[in-house]
Amino acid sequence: xxxxxxxxxxxxxxxxxxxxxxxxxxxxxxxxxxxxxxxxxxxxxxxxxxxxxxxxxxxxxxxxxxxxxxxxxxxxxxxxxxxxxxxxxxxxxxxxxxxxxxxxxxxxxxxxxxxxxxxxxxxxxxxxxxxxxxxxxxxxxxxxxxxxxxxxxxxxxxxxxxxxxxxxxxxxxxxxxxxxxxxxxxxxxxxxxxxxxxxxxxxxxxxxxxxxxxxxxxxxxxxxxxxxxxxxxxxxxxxxxxxxxxxxxxxxxxxxxxxxxxxxxxxxxxxxxxxxxxxxxxxxxxxxxxxxxxxxxxxxxxxxxxxxxxxxxxxxxxxxxxxxxxxxxxxxxxxxxxxxxxxxxxxxxxxxxxxxxxxxxxxxxxxxxxxxxxxxxxxxxxxxxxxxxxxxxxxxxxxxxxxxxxxxxxxxxxxxxxxxxxxxxxxxxxxxxxxxxxxxxxxxxxxxxxxxxxxxxxxxxxxxxxxxxxxxxxxxxxxxxxxxxxxxxxxxxxxxxxxxxxxxxxxxxxxxxxxxxxxxxxxxxxxxxxxxxxxxxxxxxxxxxxxxxxxxxxxxxxxxxxxxxxxxxxxxxxxxxxxxxxxxxxxxxxxxxxxxxxxxxxxxxxxxxxxxxxxxxxxxxxxxxxxxxxxxxxxxxxxxxxxxxxxxxxxxxxxxxxxxxxxxxxxxxxxxxxxxxxxxxxxxxxxxxxxxxxxxxxxxxxxxxxxxxxxxxxxxxxxxxxxxxxxxxxxxxxxxxxxxxxxxxxxxxxxxxxxxxxxxx
Length: 761
What we know:
Elements: E1 13-15, E2 21-23, H1 32-45, E3 50-52, H2 65-71, E4 76-78, E5 102-104, E6 125-127, E7 148-150, E8 171-173, E9 195-197, H3 208-213, H4 215-225, E10 251-252, E11 255-256, H5 259-364, H6 367-509, H7 516-554, H8 562-572, H9 576-584, H10 587-595, H11 602-607, H12 612-617, H13 620-626, H14 631-661, H15 680-687, E12 726-729, E13 734-736, E14 756-759
Parallel strand pairs: 3-4, 4-5, 5-6, 6-7, 7-8, 8-9
Antiparallel strand pairs: 1-2, 10-11, 12-13, 12-14
């Protein structure tokens, strides 16, 4: 069911005040729903503190109205001129307790008020007139700030006794309540009442004669009945009122003005202001209209002036045009006269032509005359053709002669130019041939001289190469066997000295004194032999160095170090991978291949990372697969590899036997032992005078001998950290490392003076 009223359709009759039915025009239909929505929208959007939904045909308060008043901070709620029977539906009345000051419920169908009306603590104006109220709730007395109460035109029988507590109530209207015949006694406690409107004739208490005297008499009567002193409203100061003002605004004689009236006045002021603004706008519009009219008048005057000027210009142009037309007419008249004259002359010529044609026609009408005329014309034509043909032949002959003469002259000029060109060409050819012959002769001389010089250089180079080869061959053949023997003996002596030193140190640690003299004698013998071999090696190196110096001095400047440079180029031309592989090859394997005259197969085994031990396990066909096609070399390599591995095994067993038995001493190698083949590095070192890089200029022999990898020695007796790798001569002890030997002058074991130091690998 909607909460707004719907008008009855086809309502054509109304009742008058006496209840009689009178005819009237049908009322216009009102859309209360649209009006309600419009007023709710205005109430929510307007900054005014008024929530006005009056005259909307409401039967119930719309939902959420009370909470909206609280949220929007509306001071006044206007619900008058509706059909409300209850105040439910809008929410909880207590939601407006802190904001609502004006509540207008007039002209509705209310029969009672809810007790929650007393929760509106800030309410100051309450309009309940023109309803059907029969009783007011006692909670009405809780409205301590209520200033104006209108309950007229209702059906009240009595007023609540709690109204005496309304200390701010100054206006009370109880008119048109037929059953209300007395006022409550404690109403005298509401001392602020200065306007009390009531029906004098209906009341029994106070008596009607008192009621006729006015509000002051009524209040005095009630005070007397309650035995309290009467205080005039002008002298009474309600609670929370000081110096004629309260916290909510101004007052009048200690009593607050009607806030609803203030709201109405403020609205009227706003309307007046809006009206004045509209009047100002209308005046401004009128002024603007007058200005626009003035501008239009000026514009019309300008248009009129322009129009007159345009008409004047048009009249002037029209007069000019008429004058031009007159002149044109005169010209046309003159042309017409001339044309008539020309037509007359043409007619005369036409008449003459016609007469000639008629005469000619008359002549041609006779056939004999026509034939004669034709014959005569034919003869004349033949004569003319004969004359013209003869003249044309003569002219053609003359032109042919002239053309032939011109061609002959042109041909003669061409022949002359050709002869000149041929003569010049022959001269140029002769000069070019002469120059070419001279150049060829000079070139032959230069080439012959260069060829001779080149032949001489080549012959010299071949001779130098031959001499160098012979010298190197003789030198290598002479020195090779002795050098191998010395190197082998030095290597064996170093090994034996190292072994003796280790055994001697072991026995010394075990405090074994026997055979000490024998070992010392052997060590001294080996030391002397080592020193002799070192001296012999130095002498050989010096001799080789002297011979190389002699060869270097005899060689020419252009062929200096020729073969050594070529050899170095061959070494440098090896692939990087092959050079790295050869650098990583096992030295023992390299020496083995050198002794087997298979040095060319070093890169083959180096690329495959073959060791001596792996080589000893291989077969003949394995080496053949590697590319070693000579069966003799294959057998020799396998035999030497097996001997090397077996020799290493015997040496290891011998060393372990010496350590276990603690007796016996290694003896020096026999003098007649077959020396081992020197390595390629040793050979190059000896050829180059101790310089392994193969430099052209020989250098002095090194003070230290070739480093030989002998054995894993014990720790240094000085630092006890590094391995022993230095041989002291002449005692032959190996008991010191390379770092500590620089500060040692006497052997740490035998305390003999050190004459020479040899470094082991």
